[in-house]
Specification:
Layout lengths: L2 E4 L2 E4 L5 H24 L1 H9 L5 H22 L3 H19 L10 H24 L6 H5 L6
Antiparallel strand pairs: 1-2
Length: 151
């Protein structure tokens, strides 16, 4: 792996081309954007699922979920604050996976579907971890603003 010096520190250069990281971000972001819009369109139902009622704390949690999914989804797609967005989405995805895809407690007819969704989300966490580690790449707002290591 190549290395370079920036601000007097040695760093490891990102070996992936900018287009590969752009493709990864563009493939992952729609999952969160679609889900965030879906939560807005069925806000009361979402709030009720999160805390047993459509009022109070359930609404707060639903609003937070929408903010994370839409805010971090857009940030990920644009490559803006990419590492922070990826880390926030990792935490969000882990929480959502444990809460809603607990295949170990699902009724028998739902075990396979919940297992697939659980494992899909584990893969998603892995992809987000790579983006968090590597950054947005050269085709991103972060690169334009200088928040990305030079290539």
């Amino acid at each position: 792996m190549s290395s370079f010096v920036r601000n007097g520190e040695n760093s490891t250069m990102n070996p992936l081309p900018g287009w590969a990281l752009l493709l990864a971000r563009a493939c992952i972001a729609p999952l969160f954007l679609y889900s965030g819009v879906g939560k807005i369109l069925a806000f009361s139902t979402t709030a009720a699922r999160l805390y047993g009622g459509a009022d109070g704390f359930g609404r707060f949690l639903a609003a937070g979920a929408v903010a994370v999914e839409l805010g971090c989804g857009v940030a990920l797609l644009l490559g803006l604050f990419t590492r922070n967005a990826a880390i926030a989405l990792i935490a969000f995805t882990i929480a959502a996976t444990v809460m809603f895809h607990n295949f170990w407690a699902a009724p028998e007819p739902q075990v396979v579907v919940q297992t697939i969704n659980f494992l899909k989300n584990v893969g998603l966490v892995g992809a987000l971890a790579l983006i968090a580690a590597l950054g947005a790449g050269s085709i991103s707002v972060d690169a334009v603003l200088g928040k990305q290591a030079p290539r």
